[in-house]
Backbone:
């Protein structure tokens, strides 16, 4: 089983940082800090993908999770931004896992992130 980062990962994180809602200040968080937390918690993403592989040993695809990191570092919102996987359970599981993650506190307010995961067996 492989989980790789999309080649567009850095651009995706930088392009989506900004305001989290009306009236909230724009925040910033270094993309390396975001990647660090993802790497530390990747076992949760692997768990979701392993469940998909039990149903379909050839399951694969690209899943983008859109989430908001609040001013205290907590994930305040998470959604499946896009997925080309046949199995809907894996992207939903990934979204639910990310909702529990805690990141370093952003500077200046909330930060929106789109984080792509490329999932492939082997």
Residues:
């Amino acid at each position: 089983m492989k989980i790789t980062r999309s080649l567009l990962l850095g651009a995706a994180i930088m392009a989506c940082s900004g305001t989290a809602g009306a009236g909230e200040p724009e925040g910033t968080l270094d993309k390396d800090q975001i990647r660090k937390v993802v790497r530390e918690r990747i076992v949760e993403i692997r768990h979701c993908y392993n469940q998909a592989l039990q149903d379909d040993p050839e399951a694969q695809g690209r899943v983008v999770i859109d989430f908001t990191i609040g001013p205290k570092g907590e994930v305040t919102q998470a959604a499946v931004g896009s997925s080309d996987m046949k199995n809907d359970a894996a992207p939903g599981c990934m979204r639910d896992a990310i909702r529990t993650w805690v990141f370093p506190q952003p500077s200046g307010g909330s930060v929106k992130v789109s984080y792509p995961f490329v999932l492939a067996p082997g």
In short: The radius of gyration is 14 Å. Residues 2-120 form one domain. Strands lie at 2-5, 61-69, 75-83, 111-120. DSSP finds three helices and four strands in the chain.
